[in-house]
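Changelog-adjacent note: as of this version, every example in the card shows the full chain rather than a window. The one below runs 237 residues end to end.
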Amino acid sequence: MTIRVGLALAVLGLGAATLTGCGGGGDSDFEKQSAEDIVGSAKTDMKKLDSVKVAGTVTSDGQEISLDVQSGSGGNCTGSITVGGGTTELLGVDGQTWMRPDEAFWRSFGGDSADQILSAVGDKWVVIGADEDSFNQFCDVDKLLDELLKDESDDSTYKKLGSDELDGDDVIKVENNDSEDGPSTGYVLVDEPHYLVKVERTEGSDQGSVTFSDFDAKFDVEAPADDEVVDLNSLGG
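Full-length structure tokens:
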């Protein structure tokens, strides 16, 4: 029995276009650089991260998706994802990933098998298969950022929207005007490293806001005990 939830594209699509660009420029005054160079600098610095926290809410095709996940290297992660009115905890340790959904989550995605799943699982962790990219992408910072920062050939144009302050940090706002998806705005730290700290989209079918924080912060994860884990694929039916 396999549970597939297409979260990654809905959430990551908000940020991918904003950070697709060329390499950063050499101007010492970051705010005076071109929009393309600012985007390139953010892309370069983000790809050096060993861990990052991703949090926010996106509405995609009428469905609200919220996430609060700390993603690290080597398949380590911890956090939660809410979609379809239900929430699941997410845990990754050394490349193995588990989720622990609440009843509302199973009711939304379990279909006719929801009662059977709830009876078998209870409040235990559920093994996530290696092919379940919709969850596993959040549990490896390299895969997450590769997806987020992947190069795409499009006719996007970039424009600086001026400086601002976000959570006490000076940022510069860059708008990406994509002909297909509409405009989105990225907030990039003025000080080095020039991390992307927020992306928001207020138009189009996928709207919302995602923040990035806790850059390279260390966090501890521990695999659940064997008697706290259920593998749905082994249940049959």
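Structural remarks: The chain has one domain: 8-221.
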